[in-house]
Amino acid sequence: MAGKARIVSSTQLQTLPPAQTVEPFGKVTYRVEPDGRLAVRAYILMERTIEGARAGIAVDGSGTMMRWFGAQRKGATNVVSPFVQRMCAYLAQHVAADGQVTAIYWATGDDGRALEEIGTLSAEQSSHFDFSGPRHYGTFTCLLPALKYYVEKFVTSRWGLYVFVTDGRLDDLEDVKAYTIQLAHSIAQEQRPGLKLVMIGVGGHIDEAQMQALDDLDTGTNVDLWDHKLANTMQHLAEVFTEVVDENMIIAEQGRVLDEQHNVLKDYRDTGLPAVLEFVLPKEAKAFTVEIGGNAVIQKIV
């Protein structure tokens, strides 16, 4: 990764793999500037209680998911259900204001554009629910209908967090991008409440490049709708909150950001440490240190 970081252009945003981030960071991104310095954006992992929030979880029901549901042969292990149970219960407990999560299967039916409603589940119901797959697996993997389902269903809600679980490649990525840009503009113009969308990949055939394309999508606004995770690298379910932060929220009375030579890059001792840190590392830097709560946390970049 060190070699790649030095040859990308300043327009390419790099995201540190989740397995390489250390607590308390949920996500670290950086961009190589023309002069070789690294412009870093580090999100401190934290849960947020948002009044009136709605939550949803949409599970891919396309044909390629059959193997992960254990539906291809008798006695096969369903690796999807345990993860979705935990995530659904977490959303019900920590996100949904009414303690209920709206669950669906998406990418079902002959054209992969149908949806199958599972229902609304509490945390207790979620932890025991058998997510065994849809009635009719889809031939294609089309995300847009599921996205529109939540956007339209909860159009009057004050905020929403909707998680989409998938194993593979989207067949309607460009349509999803176009709709996302339209949605971001509506939110930026305060025509509808805000929301956050999280794509989580499961299984061994994930097209992370597509997920990253949504994650880094330039909507032409300051509204960032998509985040993405890989189930097998998630250390905490709270990582769905990685980008659900108020950038001006103060999470510690003081703190500092230092480079490898202990030079102070940002000093928050008078202002308090915010939930999102933005700073520039010197050329060829390979790590930074954040002083928080009396501890020094070292995060490697390459």
Features:
alpha/beta, globular, 302 residues, Rossmann fold, 2 domains
What does this structure look like?
With 302 residues, this protein is an alpha/beta fold. The chain has 2 domains: 45 residues, no CATH class; 189 residues, Rossmann fold (3-Layer(aba) Sandwich), CATH 3.40.50. It is 21% helix and 31% strand. The chain is built from 7 helices and 16 strands. It has a 6-stranded mixed beta sheet, sandwiched between helices. The protein is globular and about 60 Å long. The termini are close together.
Helix percentage range: 10-25%
Average predicted local confidence, pLDDT: 86
CATH homologous superfamily title of the largest domain: von Willebrand factor, type A domain
What is the structural class?
Answer: alpha/beta
**What is the molecular shape?**
globular
CATH class of the largest domain: Alpha Beta
Quickly count the domains. Answer: 2
What fraction of the residues are assigned to beta strands by DSSP?
A: 25-35%
Series of H and E elements? HEEEEHHEEHHEHEHEEEEEEEE
Distance between the termini: 6 Å
Briefly note the CATH topology name of the largest domain: Rossmann fold
Radius of gyration: 20 Å
**Residue windows where pLDDT falls under 50 for at least 5 positions:** 1-11
Corresponding CATH architecture of the largest domain = 3-Layer(aba) Sandwich
Number of strands: 16
Strand order of the largest sheet: 6-5-4-7-8-9
| DSSP helical segment count | 7
> What about the largest sheet?
6 strands, mixed
